[in-house]
Amino acid sequence: MLAVGRGLMTNPDCLIMDEPSEGLAPIIIQSVWQAIGKLRQEGLSILLVEQNAALAVQLVDYVHILEKGRVVFSSTPQELWANDAVKSSYLGI
User: Fold this and answer.
1) How far apart are the C-alpha atoms of 90 and 39, rounded to whole Å?
2) pTM here?
3) C-alpha–C-alpha distance, residues 70 and 40, integer Å
4) Residues 23 and 53 sit within 8 Å (Cβ to Cβ)
5) Distance from C-alpha of 40 to C-alpha of 43, rounded to nearest angstrom
6) Checking DSSP bridges between strand 63-67 and strand 70-75, what pairing results, if any?
7) What is the pLDDT of residues 44-79, one digit of tens each?
8) CA 70 to chain centre
9) Dihedral, CA atoms, 46, 56, 72, 90, nearest 10 degrees?
């Protein structure tokens, strides 16, 4: 939360977040996700990098999956969840 607060101090047009759930207890992740959701609702653009796909798709408008630095899949979250081949190949689901 401190890192998010520091990032917001300059009133950015876009907030870039790299693995905001990493190393956090589940109850804390829930609080962080609520805060990110509120920022999104207020119109802040957010670039979110997150390995927990199930968590990430709750907040995003669009998904890009990278493999070795290349985009291998792009879609809406709904299209991603409907694509069993992509989930199996890249997300281990």
Assistant:
1) 29
2) 0.81
3) 26
4) no
5) 5
6) antiparallel
7) 999 999 988 888 998 999 999 999 999 999 999 999
8) 18
9) 160
